[in-house]
Amino acid sequence: MYGHRFSPHRYSQPQLFACLVLKTFFKVDYRGLVAILKDHGELRDLLGLKEVPHFTTLQKASKRLLKVARAQRLFADTVKRFFRRRRRQRVKLAAFDSTGLECGHRSIYYIRRRNGAQKRWQTVGYSRYAKLEVAAECRSHLLVGVLVGRGPRVDVDRFVPLMDTTLTNVQLDAALADAGYDSEPNHDYARRKRGIRSYIPATAGRPTTKLPKGRYRRLMRRRLNKDYGNYGQRWQVETAFSMLKRRLATSVNGHSYWSQCRDLLLLAVTYNLMILYAAVGFLRSSHDPFSVGIIDICPCAFNFFVTVLPVFIQSK
């Protein structure tokens, strides 16, 4: 319940983690969350806070609670709770992709002007960025696998790690990915070693009219289209990225590599909690909550965070 047995025991671990999720949900920093907690006594009562934590307390709690291994377990628990109503955590279609989030809030104009020493405009607005790699269920937009890191870097060698971390959370029938993951070893690993149907456009390499030599890439070149293997559903992962960036953040505030990784993992956990709330709470009256779409999650998800989240983290 607490960080150490000799700690002052002012704030429990569930309370601190709930504060971190609220920080992401409200799109504020540590100082901004402290101001929100000071202004809203009902929020403090719901979280069970007798006093408002200092912003440095929250910053130190993020280092302790959002270590990669622990945050991955929390992320896996959100997936498990989403599929609780099903006997088996089986996903028919999952789309693999990655996206970049800005490091900081510098304007493109400033980035271009700072290169004035060379008397020319800088065309690239970044040198590195925080990279979030996800596997999203096509039906619900839930994230079932996540990896964090830093870009730019190619995706072709990230297919196997992303599939492995996804399979630790769910059972997968088919994986959809864009041409950035195209390689024969990726198909071979998914289909032969894992028994998962992989659908990736075979467009890597120089343009040519000849068919690829690999067995599965040749199959992709011949048959893959919008309808084959439901490949047209791959764009659902782009919807998930749009939901995450519109509702939560388009940038991370961390400066070091590990602080950026913690921010990315917290984004993924918060996003899944919002999807979980929309599935079992906000759209409870619908027989099939995903038939009407859950792209626009209303701000009343706040009620879920301040009431259910402390209970959720209590088990961890």
Structure report:
The protein is α/β, with parallel strands linked by helices and 316 residues long. The protein has helices spanning 13-26, 30-39, 41-47, 55-65, 68-82, 108-113, 159-167, 184-193, 215-223, 236-247, 257-282, 301-307, 309-314, and strands spanning 90-103, 129-137, 143-151, 171-177, 197-199, 251-252. A hairpin with a 5-residue loop joins strand 2 (129-137) and strand 3 (143-151). The chain is globular, with a radius of gyration of 21 Å. Residues 283-302 have low confidence and may be disordered.
Question: How would you briefly describe this protein structure?
Answer:
This protein is an alpha/beta fold and about 325 residues long. About 45% of the residues lie in helices and about 15% in strands.
Poorly predicted residue ranges: 283-302
Q: Could you tell me the radius of gyration in angstroms? A: 21 Å
Topology as a string of helices (H) and strands (E): HHHHHEHEEHEHEHHEHHH
Average pLDDT over all residues: 83
Q: What is the subunit arrangement here? A: single chain
The major β-sheet equals:
6 strands, mixed
Helix content: 40-55%
Strand content: 5-15%
Backbone shape: globular
**What's the total number of strands?**
6
Q: Which structural class should the secondary elements be placed in?
A: alpha/beta
Please, how many helices? Answer: 13
Distance between the termini: 9 Å
